[in-house]
Amino acid sequence: MSYPDQPSSPGSISGRRLTNRNTNRYSVTALFSMAAENDVEVEDDLARAQKRLRDLKGKISAQSKKNFVLERDVRYLDSRIALLIQNRMALDEQREVERTLEEVDPTEGHYPDDRKLQQYSNLFFLLQSEPRHIAALCRLVSLSEIDTLLQTVMFTLYGNQYESREEHLLLTMFQSVLSAQFDTATEFGSLLRANTPVSRMMTTYTRRGPGQSYLKSVLAERINSLIEHKDLNLEINPVKVYEQMINQIEEETGTLPPNLPRGVAPEVAAENLDVQAIIAPRLTMLMEIANSFLVTIIESMESVPYGIRWICKQIRSLTRRKYPEATDYAICSLIGGFFFLRFINPAIVTPQAYMLVEGVPAKHPRRTLTLIAKMLQNLANKPSYAKEAYMMTLNPFVENNKARINQFLNNLCEVGDFYDTLEMDQYMALSKKDLMIHITMNELYNTHSLILQHIETLSPNDKTHLRILTDELGPAPAQVPRKENRTIELNLYSRWETPVQDIQSALMDSVSSSDMLYMETKSIFVQLIRSIPSVAEKRPYNLAVIAERAATTKDATLVRKGIKVKEMLRELEELKIIDQADGYKLMQEEVAAELVHLGNLREKVVLETKSLDAVYKTIGDHNNYLRSQLEQYKAYLQNVRLTASKDKGSTTGVGVVTVGGKEKKPSKSVVLGPYRFTHAQLEKEGIIVESNVPDNRRPNIYFNITSPTPGTFIIALHYKGRERAILEMDLKIDDLLEKQKDNKHLLDLEYVQLNVPKVLGLLKKVFAKR
Fold first, then answer.
1. Residue 154 DSSP label
2. SS3 per residue for 659-723
3. Which band of pLDDT confidence, cut at 50, 70 and 90, is reported for residue 500?
4. Name one Pfam family in it (predicted).
5. Mean pLDDT of 468-472
6. Cβ(338)–Cβ(178) under 8 Å?
7. CA atoms of 759 and 761, how far apart (whole Å)
8. Burial class (CB in 10 A: 0-12, 13-18, 19+), 428
9. Are 420 and 27 in contact (CB under 8 A)?
10. How far apart are CA 43 and CA 527, in angstroms?
């Protein structure tokens, strides 16, 4: 199975495959062991548990892709709706936004013809099985193109997140991308830190099912127990502590002491003895909490997804090769830059975005989580406190744990390679008739288009397989309207390889026929014992009796296997590999060991299923949240359309209508509102996340919301009986959308803190109807 146009670099898959067409005996033994684990003809508890686990993994993979696509849609619509609210969008642009919300109609559009489909099948087999092409493409595309390509790569081409062949091919692609990143890096410090297509790839990889599952199992409980303490204030920034202190004194006494002026410099605040007394116990507590997070993360090493550990291993290996003089601390800072900066810390800082907690944490625990993440990052990186001098006070935590974190980061890298098993997987892929991906028409055409744009770089030689296929395919079709963007099942196969009809026969030249016979016999006995529960109870296993029992049952499948295995036992005895005189002791012991392995495997499968059930529920909930956001947008756009048609060319401040090809501006902006909401109303709807208003005063508090011009809002907080508002805040829709995009989910109104996505929802709902 050779790929003539693939270079044979040391350690590359193809290099190994060219010199070792077939796998060694170890791989074949593993193959039969896998067959025992996944036998479709067996219906015992293990088989049922495994089927459920496989189904669950398939659902998680499919749901992850849907969420990725929905999140991208929501990001796009956030930015477009902002323009719409501010009257900066004409009707043709409105229609473009509406098209983003159209459901795909399975009856609209058309498939490529059979010849084109066959060519795409060949192309995508090549892209999937030779990851270097996609790796090169990911480095060549622009930041604006990377998300669409990542969707295809992470969730379509290698979309089965729990299938070892696809996962290993995806990791091979990462190795290629990282290698190129190191080759082109100009300075050590900037490696893997900038926002590039490569860093976006790494972040997206950690958001796949296995990464989400790890974060939930390791961090969710610890974060949830921390955020229960809503009033625990661990602020250590002297300026903020000083402000909070004098505010409290003023609240309690009604006056501000003359020796405590407002707005002091950071160094003045830091020298205040009372401030120091407040901060000291907080530092101790922060270090204790950070230590508990660190211990949890270190103890979880064995459950870190293999792929994430393997990427850490590549970062270490590439750094050692490119920078031989780099210290172990410097190397670990790069590994920590990926593991903590891209994976762990974003989940600690915004646990709601990773679905680890319900709702947005309250103000104090949210600040504590931010400080914990800073401490872990400073520990994993070379600490740099230039921006925040007060973090220096947490230096003891960094000093005490530096050696421990480096040990952990190095241990993370200690995982085996997968090249031998991938070679076997790739070989078996040729024997599968069901190698297939689900891909949308636009993913198909977009990938085709990107390859053509960069074909001279990807494949300068016109004799390579990639060049031959793209030349035959010709120009890439244009993107189809969303309504016609159907998903198709694309069967993958290579036109340069002969499909393997019988994997066992194909492997015969690397494994002796007697070895193959022995392994197959053992495999059948394992199947029989799993299929006839009564024989599993008697130990040691009497293989001759089990074969006879199967051959004389009423089940045709078992009869066939029983007769076959009796004949195989006879052949093995003639070859003097086993002996009936000792009850086939060697095989009997190996069968027993395999069944013990499968028994243990069942417990693992049940445990993994429980863990993934929680992950599936979480990403399902997130999917519902994203869908509800899209439903809001649909309702909003519908109202815009109705308003526009009623006004026949005028505007109510919700959208611009095009008349005769020109925008007709309103003669004057219409002030909308005020609309009144009680404290209780906003609290019930989850818009108020946190309130400093005393309980007995809340019934007298209400909010007025006005829109003086499109896209601008004033939220005024009133107390019943007082004419003037207690406070007013001017808001622009852009600012709210930007906060939401940056996962800053809270809006501080001094007395109350509001949930940004829910405020946006309220504004769209109220003002779109007016």
1. I
2. ECCEECCCCCCCCEEEEEEEHHHHHHCCCEEEECCCHHHHHHEEEEEEEEECCEEEEEEEECCCC
3. low
4. RasGAP
5. 93
6. no
7. 5
8. middle
9. yes
10. 10
Reply yes or no on whether the pLDDT at 643 is more than 70: no
Residue corresponding to tokens 């205040």: 272
Query: Which residues on neighbouring strands pair with residue 662, listed in sequence order?
Result: 659
How much of the chain exceeds pLDDT 70, in percent?
Answer: 79
By CB neighbour count within 10 A (0-12 exposed, 13-18 middle, 19+ buried), where does 516 fall?
middle
> Would you state the pLDDT for residue 431?
57
Structure tokens at 296: 């949890």
pLDDT tens column, 678-708: 999 998 888 998 888 888 889 999 999 998 8
CB 575 within 8 A of CB 588: no
Q: How far apart are CA 445 and CA 106, in angstroms?
A: 18
Q: Is the pLDDT of residue 467 over 90?
A: yes
Residues forming a β-bridge with 677: 703
CA distance 139 to 201: 10
Specify the pTM: 0.69
Opening angle at CA 575, ends 574 and 581, nearest 5: 60
Q: How many residues does the chain have?
A: 770
Tokens at 105, concatenated: 């109609």
The residue type found at 387 is K
Q: What is the DSSP letter of 482?
A: G
Q: Is the dihedral of CA 32, 34, 38, 44 positive or negative?
A: positive
Q: What is the pLDDT of residues 288-322, one digit of tens each?
A: 999 999 999 999 999 999 999 999 999 998 888 88
Angle at CA of residue 88, ends 643 and 658, nearest 5°? 55
Confidence of residue 99 (pLDDT cuts 50, 70, 90): low
Within 474-551, where are the H helices?
503-507, 513-531, 533-536, 543-551
- pLDDT greater at residue 667 or residue 205: 205
Q: Nearest Cα to 767, choosing from 617, 650, 588, 632?
A: 632
> Domains in the chain, start-ordered, CATH in brackets?
207-235+267-306+314-412 (1.10.506.10), 669-768 (no CATH)
- Give the CB-side neighbour count of residue 439, counting CA atoms within 13 A: 28
Classify residue 673 as left (phi > 0), alpha (psi -120 to 50) or beta: left
Instruction: Give whole-number Cα distances, 725 to 671, 690, 695, 716, 767, in Å.
Output: 18, 20, 19, 6, 21
Helix or strand or coil: residue 754? strand
Answer whether residue 757 shows pLDDT above 90.
no
- Give the residue among 635, 658, 636, 632 at the shortest CA–CA distance from 645: 658
pLDDT for position 534: 77
Average pLDDT over residues 747-767: 84
Longest Cα–Cα distance in the chain: 104
- H or E stretch including 755? strand 752-755
Q: How far apart are CA 283 and CA 235, in angstroms?
A: 9
Task: Quickly state the pLDDT bin for 91 (edges 50, 70, 90).
Answer: low
Residue among 409, 8, 334, 328 nearest 181 (CA)? 334
Beta bridge partners of 663: 658
Q: What is the mean pLDDT of the chain?
A: 80
